[in-house]
Amino acid sequence: MKKVALIAVAVLISGWLTAQEKVDMVTDRPDQTESASLISVKGLQIESGFSFEKYNSEINNTTYNSTLVRYGLFEKMELRLGLAYLGRDVSLLGASFNESGFAPIVVGAKFHLMEEGDGIPKLAFMSTFTIPKSGNKAFENKYMGADFRVAGEYSLNDAMSFGANLGVAWSGAEYGNYATGIYTAVIGMSLSEKLGAFAELYGFLPKEGKNDHRWDAGLTYAVNEDLQLDFSTGVGLSKVSPDFFVSLGLSIRMP
């Protein structure tokens, strides 16, 4: 009986330890490439940050806080909620003005499509929608905006991976609500157990107007398995792009 009891206790302890194991934390910031990974079932992750964009000497765009809330609803589906508080400073012809307020609310979901295999990347599909007239008047959109993307990622080796997005978006703005193609390509590197780095090329290809191409790079630091800090900076590669931009953020996974 003692042997049976000991075996039972050992099995219970082994099962409990297995249940406590966590997968590595994967975030959708600070790069512009949405990962192909989903939040675990009933998992909650909050990704928040600050960013600043400078367009020549006349326009500065500031995102005082951009927050993405991700919740694992099913094994192959996560829900997403995006909130942001924005600011804009404009100096033109000797006059200046500034605006600030909440951006429109963004809701959506990400769906798992395929696991990574030999020569096959992990794939996911993401769809988000911008709710009309849900933000400050200076930043609100008259119509519903939409963003549809296919996200892929592939492990090049134990310390390096490649990720990419292809998609199309509609802003929902009263003027210029035309389709805009989106592309991203990123190389991610693990520099140590806690430190990671990335370099990325991405852009926006509107049906009307000029293309907007950008490059950025950054670092991530895992404080622990449920808390990550990040930094990124980049430059515009087109005339319509910002001269430079910088971002700081943190991501928290609820235990």
UniProtKB/TrEMBL annotation:
InterPro entries: FApF (IPR025737). Pfam families: Phenol_MetA_deg (PF13557). Residues 1-19 form the signal peptide. Keywords: Signal. This is Transporter. It comes from Labilibaculum antarcticum.
